[in-house]
Design a protein that fits this description.
Strand content: 25-35%
Shape: globular
Helix content: 10-25%
Number of domains: 3
Oligomer: single chain
Largest sheet: 4 strands, antiparallel
Length: about 500
């Protein structure tokens, strides 16, 4: 059975074999009227049940099967009175050949139908690949689609252990079962060495804590994304003297220990020296510490400052009291640079190795959430319900000042997103440009307003560079995406 889901539509098209109910659903072979549903007759010339009456002057010869059947007196034997009081049976028109509507059900001649015009688009195991559906009208020979018909996107999933080949069909392939990341389920644990080093899938690559590079950059967050009220009101679980600060909003455990490094490889090496972490939700699982990625750093709140945030004294302790710029290193890299959180300037920036002599390392431990095979959001025009995070987004607005943006994203159904929420749409794995999951993966070289600010200047997320930084509120060429508030 093949399932086709029309993107942006509520209908789901199922293509499967069905058993007709004596011609109530589709033409059915017959050799007499007794094979046909009420109100239908057997057209012996075609051998099919039809819903059209026989011509008045046509003599329909009885078949051997009809002659031998015990059918009781005929209407002719009963006379004209047999027709009096008989109900007027209205039956549906005869469906056209091989015509299916958007709901996957047969449709009659003259009614809208759909046609698949492209099969599998990429040879990947189990991948939800793009199809295209066009709409036309059901004709005598099938679904007749004009050349300029509107095209709808749809998707198809090959069964486990099968791949989608160039012929447009799913076919078994032993490699699909051999490669634990073949189904492209990001966050799926693909290797556990028994010593706390969990490796997880990023598309087709099994990425361990020590594997750094763009191939292992995240396509989205591997943990819950905190809302603004959570970041404002929910304190971290930490007591003075403890070595771990637990974030209840994300499930991330942060190591309260000051480490420094010059490169992400050095930073991961520093995290490897720490004692293993025991996950309280899975006491039997002990985890190695790892460098945080872009999304984990953003979940802290880009504009946080240890001196002024009463619920984050653990971070001040981890950073130390050194003067000057204080960066936190991430494992996410692009173009030979790595992302870092500048907690003294409210920025998420890209640094080249050696650009800053020593960068602070804040290690994190968690079991990543497994994400669906389809990483992108489900587009609804320019808005979407994100399959990875559950966040619902509005269509983006053209450039406008921050005051106007705040006014538009205010109410029970829309708020300004945080940096972490907006950044959850960044596909930092995509090449050659950073992808935008809300735009179906296409790069969006736009800046968007957020609800966070630094020194009275609102922060923006730059989808061209992946950075977040403050701008004057009257800045030009800044777009807006509102997010739906969540029930927390």
């Amino acid at each position: 059975m093949t399932r086709l889901t029309l993107t942006g539509l509520s209908a789901t098209l199922w293509l499967a074999c069905t058993v007709p109910d004596y011609a109530a659903d589709e033409p059915f072979l017959c050799d007499g009227d007794r094979h046909c549903a009420a109100g239908w007759r057997c057209d012996l010339a075609r051998g099919q049940c039809v819903d059209t009456p026989a011509p008045d002057d046509a003599e329909v010869p009885p078949t051997p099967a009809d002659q031998g059947a015990d059918q009781g007196p005929s209407p002719a034997d009963l006379g004209p009175a047999a027709d009096q009081g008989a109900p007027d049976q209205t039956v549906p028109p005869n469906p056209g050949p091989d015509c299916l509507g958007r709901d996957g059900q047969p449709v009659p001649v003259g009614q809208p139908c759909v046609e698949e015009i492209q099969g599998c688009a990429e040879a990947v195991c189990g991948l939800r690949v793009k199809l295209q559906i066009r709409e036309g009208l059901c004709g005598p020979t099938g679904c007749e689609v004009p050349p300029a018909a509107e095209v709808f996107d749809a998707s198809m999933a090959c069964p486990a252990g099968e791949w989608c080949g160039a012929a447009g069909l799913c076919a078994p392939d032993p490699e699909c079962d051999a490669n634990p990341c073949a189904l492209r389920r990001d966050g799926l644990i693909c290797n556990d060495d028994g010593d706390g080093r969990l490796s997880t899938c990023v598309t087709l690559t099994c990425c361990g804590p020590g594997v750094l590079g763009e191939a292992c950059n995240p396509r989205g967050p591997g943990h819950p994304v905190p809302a603004f009220v959570q970041r404002r009101d929910t304190p971290f679980t930490w007591a003075q003297g403890e070595r771990v600060a637990l974030d209840p909003a994300t499930g991330l455990a942060w190591r309260v220990e000051r480490l420094q490094a010059r490169t992400p490889n050095e930073g991961q090496g520093a995290c490897d020296t720490l004692a293993l972490y025991t996950d309280p939700t899975q006491p039997r699982r002990r985890l190695r510490w790892r460098l945080p990625d872009w999304h984990a750093l953003a979940s802290l709140g880009v504009t946080l400052n240890g001196r002024s945030a009463p619920d984050r004294p653990w971070l001040e302790l981890a950073l130390g009291n050194q003067a000057g710029t204080r960066f936190l290193m991430s494992r996410t890299v692009r173009g030979g640079q790595f992302f870092a959180l500048d907690v003294t300037a409210g920025r998420l920036v890209r640094l080249a190795p050696g650009e800053v002599n020593r960068v602070n390392v804040l290690c994190v431990a968690y079991t990543p959430d497994e994400r669906p095979a389809e990483a992108y959001a489900a587009p609804l025009g320019q808005g979407a319900a994100d399959l990875w995070t559950g966040l619902a987004w509005s269509a983006y607005q053209d450039p406008l000042a921050f005051a106007d943006a705040s006014a538009l994203c205010r109410g029970p159904d829309a708020v300004l997103p945080t940096v972490a929420e907006l950044g959850s749409l960044l596909d930092l794995h995509a090449t050659p440009d950073i992808g935008d999951r809300l735009a179906g993966g296409a790069p969006t070289p736009k800046r968007f307003w957020t609800s966070e600010s630094f020194n009275d200047e609102p922060l923006v997320v730059d989808f061209a560079t992946g950075e977040a930084y403050p701008l004057p509120p009257d800045s030009a060429n800044v777009y807006l995406r509102c997010v739906q508030p969540r029930d927390l």
